[in-house]
Structure formats: structure tokens, C-alpha cells
Amino acid sequence: MANIKGSDIQKVVVACDAGMGSSVMLASQLRRQLKKHRVTVEHTPVNSIPADADVVVCHAGLVARARGSAPDKVIVPVQVFIGDPAVARLVKAVETGGELDG
Amino acid sequence: MAEGLGALLEPAAIRLAETATDRDAAIRRCGEVLVEVGAVAPAYVAAMLDREQSVSTYVGEGVAIPHGTLAGKETVLRDALAVLRFPDGVDWGGQPVTVCVAIAARGDGHVEVLGELAQILLDPDRAAALRAATDQATVYDLLTPIEETA
Question: What are the protein's UniProt keywords (chain B) (predicted)?
Fold first, then answer.
């Protein structure tokens, strides 16, 4: 488990296996929601999470692989790619500057 | 942007009256269409089935986005989409799926279209229109990225 203050989040990485489908769609949603907060949102394969990521968002089934690839990052697991409450918590943390665990 | 969509999604890759007995059969049909339009090598179909085994590509509102694995990316010849509609529905791990947006991508050419698809899924009326689409023009209209006004 790691944690980060919402106000310290500058880069969010959405990870999936190939970085081709689900992560792309989720990243586009997050980019819209976080644009006004100057947070960068990228999508990548789960095996190549960039070192400067502050938060990693991925499907619950890929958390173990994400943790192996980025052990010190806050990881936000999602069950659904559109409208997941975990994503809403991440957006809220960025908006309010509050703590985010994962 | 319509031009970009046209390059990604050929008319030949829009099939609106498909049938499939189950999820794997639907994914195979998606893969076959991507092969037919020259977007992927036949081996990509197995990668799509593998990908589905690890995590479902169901994204809500009766829509799934089958695509390959990282390993399968080598069999992608060009970025492309296919839209397959199964009017009778397909059981997708307990969720009924009517529309598959199949993806083959090496680059980021498809990112804007998927962003538009995400917007559609957040809008029940547009999602219903996509599920009900019986002509290609409707599919193009729905998936063409709209300039943000907000």
C-alpha cells in the first residue's frame, strides 16, 4: 500500500495488458475529468508503467502485475471501465487535494 | 475527423446483422473481420481470445471491445476497428452484448474514436442508438469524435 496527496498527483497512468483497448477508453475519460487540474493522463501496457507515474489505474485483475511493475505507486483498481466509483475517488482526491491510498 | 474514422473503420468492417452462439464465437467473428480487411494476421484471433480470458472486454451498455494481448500486437498490420452487431445478443460472462467494437492497434490512431465510444456509453440515448443501428451511416455518425464544446 502506498498513499499520495491529491495535490501531489501530476501524472496518472491507466494500465492494461496491451495498452490498446480498455485503458485507452478509461484514460480518455480521466483526461476529460482532470484536464482543468493540469494532471497528465497516459495509457500504457501494465508491464511498462513509467517511473514518473504518481498513480496507476488498472483493472482489479491486473493489480498484482501492476504492483510487480510499479511497487511504490498508488494503485487504483477498477471493476468497470465507465463510471467506476474508484475512479470517482481518484478524481475527488485531485479536486480536493485529499489523501488517496492504494 | 471523419476522414480519420474512415481510415480506421472501413465500410467493409461494419457488420450489423451477425449471429454468434457464445462469446468466443463472437470474438472469432470479430477477429475474422479484422483479418478480412487486412488489419491483422490470422494469429491475432487467438490473442483476442487470450485477452478475453484474462479480463473481460465488456465495457457497459451492451458493448464489448475485444482486442488482442501485448504479445499479439506483433500480428497487427495496421490500426483498425471493426463494428459487429449481434441483434440477438451474446452472453458475455453474464452481460448481454449487442455491439462489439473490435480493435487492432499498434499506435494511437484509434484513441480519439475510443474516447468518443466512452462518451456514447455515458449517454444512454446514444448507447441505445448504437445498439439499434442497422445502417453504416448511423455507426459513422455516432463514432465520429465531436469537438469538445465545454
Answer: Kinase, Phosphoprotein, Phosphotransferase system, Sugar transport, Transferase, Transport
